[in-house]
């Protein structure tokens, strides 16, 4: 072989080796155990361009709208029952839409799930606080419902995250752990009906506080401002006191439909409270199981 042919052969081998190395670099990807591997170089702008803004996901935008509507309903709650009920109801109904959007756009996130639950708990609690002021005699019942609702869902969420992992949804409950919770969370229809009618019951009570003399005997008093009844400002030092507000809202709406809404939704509301109790007990048991397992593992570690 001549010297020229030898040089050309060596050059050819080097070129082939370079091409093979480039192809190998392009095909290699990071492995699951975290070992560093060669990968194609990507510009920082290309990587940054693919970062997602979870705050602007469609279901989370719906969640923000729910918060705005809930706050608006609270503003109208003392004196405008129709407006308040409409805003509050739309906020609750959007609870089903954000879940659909999360599945449709594949945008289910932990932030969205927590935002959804926090919004539900806070809006219900605010409505129950109003009912406590409307009927002080039954305030302890409404206060108990607030405590049960928040404790049950907080314990369930915390148990799911700590025992099931951060990627575990609080709605994924095994039938072996709780049959009733499995049925409640497994069917979207059951979940929607229970939540919707539970809220409908409290909305019905809210409307009855404006319209039912049976529940609020003070509504039988003459309309404020009439000759037989002076204006609230003449009776109360503050026009925003509880007594002045009760007089101002007297006899604004008819009580027929509020009674219908309350009566139809009452059984489902009672079922929802039973589910809350079961959820609280099951979440507590799950956390205790984890504590026992951790203590056993700790004792075994000390022995060794």
From TrEMBL:
Main location, first listed in the record: membrane
Pfam families linked: CDP-OH_P_transf
A GO MF label: CDP-diacylglycerol-inositol 3-phosphatidyltransferase activity
Keyword Cell division among UniProt keywords: no
Subcellular location: Membrane
Polar residues bias spans: 29-38
BP terms from Gene Ontology: phosphatidylinositol biosynthetic process
Membrane topology: Multi-pass membrane protein
Region described as Disordered: 1-46
Protein's name in the database: CDP-diacylglycerol-inositol 3-phosphatidyltransferase
Protein's organism: Aspergillus tanneri
Higher taxonomy: Eukaryota, Fungi, Dikarya, Ascomycota, Pezizomycotina
């Amino acid at each position: 072989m001549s010297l020229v042919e030898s040089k050309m052969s060596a050059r050819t081998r080097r070129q082939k080796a370079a091409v093979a190395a480039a192809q190998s670099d392009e095909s290699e990807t990071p492995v699951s155990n975290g070992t560093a591997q060669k990968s194609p170089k990507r510009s920082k702008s290309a990587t940054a361009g693919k970062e997602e803004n979870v705050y602007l996901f469609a279901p989370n935008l719906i969640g923000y709208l729910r918060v705005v509507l809930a706050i608006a309903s609270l503003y109208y709650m003392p004196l405008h029952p129709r407006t308040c009920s409409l805003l509050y109801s739309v906020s609750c109904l959007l609870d089903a839409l954000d879940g659909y959007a999360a599945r449709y756009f594949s945008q289910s996130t932990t932030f969205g799930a927590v935002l959804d639950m926090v919004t539900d708990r806070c809006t219900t609690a605010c409505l129950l606080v109003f009912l406590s002021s409307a009927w002080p005699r039954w305030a302890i019942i409404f206060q108990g419902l607030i405590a049960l609702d928040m404790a049950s869902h907080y314990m369930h969420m915390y148990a799911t995250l700590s025992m099931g992992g951060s990627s575990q949804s609080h709605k994924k409950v095994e039938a072996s752990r709780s049959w009733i919770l499995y049925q409640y969370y497994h069917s979207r229809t059951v979940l929607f009906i229970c939540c919707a009618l539970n809220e409908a019951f409290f909305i019905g009570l809210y409307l009855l506080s404006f319209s039912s003399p049976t529940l609020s005997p003070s509504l039988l008093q003459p309309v404020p401002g009439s000759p037989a009844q002076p204006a609230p400002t003449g009776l109360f030092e503050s026009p925003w006191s509880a007594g002045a507000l009760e007089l101002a809202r007297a006899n604004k709406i008819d009580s027929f439909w509020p009674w219908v809404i309350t009566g139809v939704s009452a059984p489902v509301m009672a079922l929802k409270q039973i589910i809350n109790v079961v959820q609280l007990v099951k979440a507590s048991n799950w956390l205790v199981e984890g504590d026992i397992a951790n203590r056993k593992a700790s004792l075994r570690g000390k022995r060794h």
